[in-house]
Amino acid sequence: MTEKQRIRLWSFSMIVGFFLMWEVLCIVLNVSDLVLPRPSEIIVTLWTKFPILWPHILQTLYSTLVGFSLGVMIGVSLGVLVGTSKVAYAVAYPLLVGFSSIPKVAVVPIFVLWFGSGTTPAILTAMVICVFPIVVNIATGLATTEPDLEDVLKTLGASKSEILWNVGLPRTMPYFFASLKVAITLSFVGAVLSETVASNRGIGNVMMTASSNFQVSLVFAGLIILAVLGVVLYALFSLLERRVTGWATRDTEIAIT
Amino acid sequence: MNISAHPTAPAETVSLPDAQNVVTTRHKAVELQQAAVVFGTGDKAVTALSPTKLILDKGDFVALVGPSGCGKSTILRLVTSLIKPSSGAVLVGGRDASIRHLRMGMAFQNPTMLPWLTIEQNVMMPLKIVKPFKSTFRQDRKGAFRDRVHALLGQVGLRDFAGHFPWQLSGGMLQRANLCRALVHDPDLLLLDEPFGALDQFTREELWQILQDLYLDRKPTVLLVTHDLREAGFLAQRICVMSARPGRIISDEVVPLPQPRAIDTIYTPEFVEMTQNLRALIAQVRQ
Fold first, then answer.
1. How far apart are the CA of B129 and the nearest CA of chain A, in angstroms?
2. Which structural domain range is residue B150 located in?
3. Domain ABC transmembrane type-1: where (chain A) (predicted)?
4. CATH number of the domain where residue A213 is located
5. Are the C-beta atoms of residues B182 and B105 closer than 8 Å to each other?
6. Is residue B230 part of a domain?
7. Which helix (H) or strand (E) holds A237?
C-alpha cells in the first residue's frame, strides 16, 4: 500500500513540478506573454473566462462523444464483419487502409462542403478518425481467437452467432478497450480540428479566434481544457476496461464473487 | 477374480429427469462406416485415418488406444462433426453426424475453460447452448441450473471454487471442471480426448473413479481416447487398438471385468496381463 502511495505521490509531484518549472523558466528567461504565458496567467484566464468557455466545452464534448459513439458502432460492426469473414477481410481491408491513410484535415473541407459549417462536420470528423483503430482491433481479436475455445462450443452444436457472442466477442474485449482508449483521444483531435476550420462554436473555434486576437493565455487555456477532458475520458475507459477485462490481466480484485 | 466393493458413492448425485432419448434401439449410438480422413490433395495429401469401421451401442463405454498420431482424436472430431469424412459415413444416433439430434458432451485434452468466465459460468455454458436447456436458460441460470452445476462441482470436489476464475485453479482442478462441463447437460454421448493426460497418477486415479461413478449413474455412451492402457482397462467395456498412421482399428476386445471396478483392480494379475497384451500389440504396430 505504501508502495502504491509512493508511486501516486511521485506521479503527482511530477505534474506539479512540470508546471512549476514552466512558471520559473518563464520568469527567469523573461519570456513574453505573447509567446508563452505563465501557468499562473493561464489559470487566471481559465477562472475569469470560465462562464464564457463553458458552452464551448459542452459543444466540443458533445461533438466528440456523438462522433465517437457513431465511430464505435461503425467500427465494431465493420470489425466483426472483417474479423469473421475471409471474403470481407480481403475486400474491405485494402479500402480501409487506404481510407485511414488520408489525413483527416483533408476530409474536413469535404464535410463542410456537404453539410455546411458547424456541429455536423465536427461530429463526422470525430467519427471517421476513430473508426479505423476500432476495426483493426476488433478484427484482430476475432481472427486470433483460439480454435480450441471455438471447438468447445462447436461440439455443443452452437450456431455461428452463438459462437460469436459467447467466445469471439468476449475474447476480443481487451483488444476493443485498447482501441477505445486510442479512439477517444483521436475523436477529440477530430472534433477540435473541424471546429478550428469551420465552426463558430467549440474549444477549437475559441482557440482559433483567441490566437488571431493575440489572446495567447486563452489559447493555452483551451489547450489545458482539452488535455483535462482527454485525461478524464481516457481514465473513464480505463476504469471500465478494468471491470470488463480483468480476466485478461488476472486482476485478483474481480475474482472473489 | 476378486472385485472389491464399489468405491463409496458420492454423497450427493445430481438428480436428472428420465432422459428422453431420441435414439431408438434400432440405431447404434455411433457408427463409423468405412470413414476415412485425408487432409490436403494431390502429392501433399496426408491420410489421417484409413477407412474405419467402429460401432458403439447405446450405453457402451469404448476406449480407443494406439500410438500417437494414429488418428484417435480424428475419430472424435469426426463424431462431433468438427471435421467431415473424406469418404465413408459417420452416423450418430442413426443420422449423419452433422445433424445433431443427440446431446454431445466433449472434454478435450486441454481443459479449454473460457478465461473470462468463472468456473461456474464455464460449466454452465452447455446449458446456454444445448436444447432443451437453452430455452429456459434465462430463468433457470440463477436457480435450477445453478444448483445443478454446484451439485456436479460438489461431486468432483470443486464446490468452493465455483466463483473462481480458471487461472486461479490448478491443472487437476481444471480437468475436473472440464469433466463437469462435458456432463452438465446430461449428454447421450460423451467424448473424452485424453482428458487426464497431464495429471499425476493419484489425481488421475481419483478422476477415473469419479468418471466411473458418473458413467454408471447415467449410462451415456462414452468414447474415450487415451494412451494410458490402465485407464482404458479400468474404465472401458471395450478397448479398440489402432495402428500407426494412417490409422485403422486392428483389435476390438471386450474387457472381461464387471463394473463397477475398484482401483485395486489394476494391480491384479489378470488386469496386468491384459494391459501387457495390449502393450505388446501397440509396440508391434508402431514399427
1. 6
2. 111-179
3. 57-237
4. 1.10.3720.10
5. yes
6. no
7. helix A216-244
Residue pLDDT, tens place only, A68-120: 999 999 999 999 998 888 888 888 888 888 888 888 888 888 999 999 888 89
Angstroms from B83 CA to nearest CA on chain A: 11
Is residue B8's pLDDT more than 70?
no
Nearest CA to B130 out of B182, B185, B192, B190 is that of: B185
In a domain, residue B124? The reply is yes
Give the tens place of pLDDT for each residue, A23-73.
999 999 988 888 889 999 899 999 998 998 999 999 999 999 999 999 999
Domain count, chain A: 1
Q: What total number of domains does chain B contain?
A: 1
Q: Which residue has the cell 464399489?
A: B6
Interface of B with A (CB under 8 A): 80, 82, 100, 104-106, 108, 110, 112, 114-118, 125-126, 128-130, 163-165, 167-168, 181, 185, 191
Q: Which of A144, A145, A151, A152 to mutate to test the interface with B (most CBs of B within 10 A)?
A: A152
B112 CA: distance to closest CA in chain A (Å)? 6
On whether residue B160 sits in a domain, the answer given is yes
In a domain, B116, yes or no: yes
Distance CA B181, CA B119 (A): 9
> Do B167 and A149 lie within an 8 Å CB cutoff?
no
In a domain, A158, yes or no: yes
pTM of the model: 0.78
Q: Count chain A–chain B contacts defined by CB atoms under 8 A.
A: 63
Residues B37/B47, Cβ–Cβ less than 8 Å: yes
B189: β partners:
B104, B221
What range defines the domain where residue A168 resides?
55-244
The predicted-structure confidence for A165-186, as pLDDT tens digits, reads as follows 999 999 999 999 989 988 998 9
